[in-house]
Amino acid sequence: MTVDQIVGGAIWIQLVILLAACVFGAFEGILVLSGRRRSFYTRRRMGMAVIACLAVLPLVAPYLVTSPYAASVNATDAIVAQVLNGNLDISASRMMQILTLKSEWMSQVATASSTAAQVLIAGFLAAFIARTCYLVVNIARICNALKSGRVVQRTRRCRLVATSSVSVPFSTRGLWYYYVVLPEALIADRAAVQMALGHELQHIRQGDVDAEVLLSLISPIAVLNPGFWFLSSRLRKLGELACDRAYLARKGFDAHGYALRLLEVARSTSAAKQQPTAFGVPLVGRRVPFLSRRSMLKDRIVAIADHQAEPAKEAVVFGAFLSLVMAGVVLLGAVSLAEPEDWSHERIMLSTVANLDRLNHLNTLAQRSW
Amino acid sequence: MARRRSEMLTDVELEFMIALWKIGGGSVRDIMGALKEDQQRAYTSVATVMKILDDKGFVTASRKDRALVYTPAVEKRDYEGRSLKNLSKTLFGGTPTALVARLVDNEDLTDEMIKEIKEIIDTRIRKDDG
């Protein structure tokens, strides 16, 4: 693999994440505008579909890009075709210049030949290292919480651990098991344990823990991508809202008591200092700057109140259909943004027209009487 | 009244402990002699700090003739390990670096927000036992 290919791949990944965020945002917008704002399961399922697409893309992209259909959906070729058909008012030579700009820019980044490219590389590396260190610290803190705790209960796939080193209940996963970690101080309160455990097990059941781990693992390469932070914050929030609803839908759970407990945990731990946050799903959620200035807890409480007043109905089939359509759009978009292996018919035609234009220009100069 | 046991030493206490670790043990006068030129303090100040260190459990005091003789109760190596642990806690514990902390902070609920949320719970969510 050459440096050019690595740089091209890295840029493509960033573009695909940005595209996936835009597609997800657009689908979310359509749902909200069509009065389905409270369809948290459907919206969350769509978010999971996007994350799943991003996760499998590096594996399937080589096959998709080389498939016979890839050339027909390539974004650059589509624009070139429009230029050739005369639908875009731009000369062939100018279009060629624009197309070569991209490869020139990529070459600058690959060789770090300009100051802007060096700054870009340095910024990316610094963010990558900082985020990786942050993850390592969090892994260490989670390990510490698990090691210092006592296993209260074991099931086939899950371990319930009580530890005094955390103050907010959270769930996470290792290679083989899921872990629900509860503060030692909470263990004496039976109702609190039932609520925290139920909430965290619901997170595990609906795949939030796996999504959280996956997002954490890809975060170092996407740490500077606003699309990534938009996607992860939306998914986290929808996960919490869906989790609250699913938990309360189970018979025998009191919404008032649940909301009060949530507030109590959030209040007593708003200044919690030792929470491992990168790989876990804390009970009371977390704040992402710029994207969620509002209180996440307040939104959750309002959603519980709204649902109690007027239960939202969601069709599983509709959600699955939307997720499939969205996954298709993301994959199609990813292929359209990929660099084709060879020049397409359109690119060859454009190059020919540009060369003819150039020759014509030279001939005109030669024929001119000086 | 017994002073609250603290895991870590203040800067001044650390200066005195370093002097004490150097000489292995001694009276207030011995410790003063082991302090560097620019660290010199009055006899009473040194005696006070050594009393604090005794209360904190970093030294043990025994009477020899009429003077108190202090010996380290904590090994230098143990304290170094403890300081490293404390440093990592300070760096990565409650207040990590700005970028990282901002990305993952728990919610900082103000009193007004708590009041507002409590009001929503009390007025809009009814008690329902199934």
From TrEMBL, chain A:
Keywords: Membrane, Transmembrane, Transmembrane helix. It comes from the Bacteria. Residues 56-276 form the Peptidase M56 domain. InterPro entries: Beta-lactam_resp_regulator, Peptidase_M56. PANTHER family: POSSIBLE SENSOR-TRANSDUCER PROTEIN BLAR (PTHR34978), SLR0241 PROTEIN (PTHR34978:SF3). This is Regulatory protein BlaR1. The gene is blaR1. The keyword Transmembrane helix applies. The lineage of its organism: Bacteria, Pseudomonadati, Pseudomonadota, Alphaproteobacteria, Rhodobacterales. The chain crosses the membrane at residues 12-34, 46-65, 115-137, 315-338. It comes from Shimia marina.
Automatic annotation (TrEMBL), chain B:
Keywords: DNA-binding, Transcription, Transcription regulation. Gene3D superfamilies: Penicillinase repressor domain, Winged helix-like DNA-binding domain superfamily/Winged helix DNA-binding domain. GO terms for biological process: negative regulation of DNA-templated transcription. It holds the Pfam family Penicillinase_R. One of its GO terms (molecular function) is DNA binding. Belongs to the BlaI transcriptional regulatory family. This is Regulatory protein BlaI. It comes from Shimia marina.
